[in-house]
Amino acid sequence: MTSIEQNIQKTREQICLSTEKCGRAHGTVELLAVSKTKPILAVEEAIEAGQRAFGENYVQEGVEKIQHFATTPFANELTWHFIGPLQSNKSRLVAENFDWVHTIDRSKIARRLSEQRPSHLPPLNVLIQINTSGEGSKSGINFEELQTLADEVAQLPNLTLRGLMSIPERADDYDSQFKAFSALTEAQQKLLPKHPQLDTLSMGMSGDLDAAVAAGSTMVRIGTAIFGARDYSKQTN
Ligand SMILES: *Cc1c(COP(=O)(O)O)cnc(C)c1O
Predict the structure, then answer these.
(1) How far is the CA of 167 from the centre of ligand 1 (A)?
(2) CB-ligand 1 contact for 212 (6 Å cutoff)
(3) Is the CB of 202 within 6 Å of ligand 1?
(4) Is the Cβ atom of 221 under 6 angstroms away from ligand 1?
(5) Whole-angstrom Cα distance, residue 201 to residue 164?
(6) pLDDT, tens digit (0-9, with 9 covering 90-100), for 96-109
(7) SS3 for 216?
(8) CB 209 within 8 A of CB 14
(9) What is the pTM of this model?
């Protein structure tokens, strides 16, 4: 077994344990393998280990991987999630290639993605990114802005608003992690009467998996624990 395969198994077991601990059913938390900066070969190993959902942060790099795997037998089973900050001038490539975007933080980018989504593809699944840490982080909107943005995004014809995402400020204790994630879950619940299709909470990484799952996460994003440490020296986009 390769180490990527072992790491994926270990991560899956961790997710199972976390769900068991808080009494949630198995299979309610999806593992997103974050493959940013990692080569095609690493993604291939993950696919061989049964992994199907991948997260990418850099548009060009992600599109290269998507196009590479589009010609392979499992192309239709793979889902590609854009989880990095998105600039307007790169939105077309994202709309044309990815299945999900986790980082919607303004209506302008949402409108562009909807306009640029090719009509032969299903609607792009999107999550609104929330800044749960106040000044600690610059990405994402504040809770007060959520209702308005959610209403706008939900109306766009070629997007499907699926839920919320956040990257809370690093906290080492369970209670603060749980508090930050629970705030996201509560915000989602407030939106549900008007937006009953919301079913996704993208929250939780290696260090805060337990708290995220206990608070209601449906998708955890794990990179280093699967693929090892990243080398950014070759990054160009
Ligand atoms: C890189 C990244 C991850 C994965 O981080 P690791 O520490 O490598 O597990 C998760 N979510 C987002 C948004 C990321 O950018």
Answers:
(1) 9
(2) no
(3) no
(4) yes
(5) 5
(6) 999 999 999 999 99
(7) coil
(8) yes
(9) 0.96
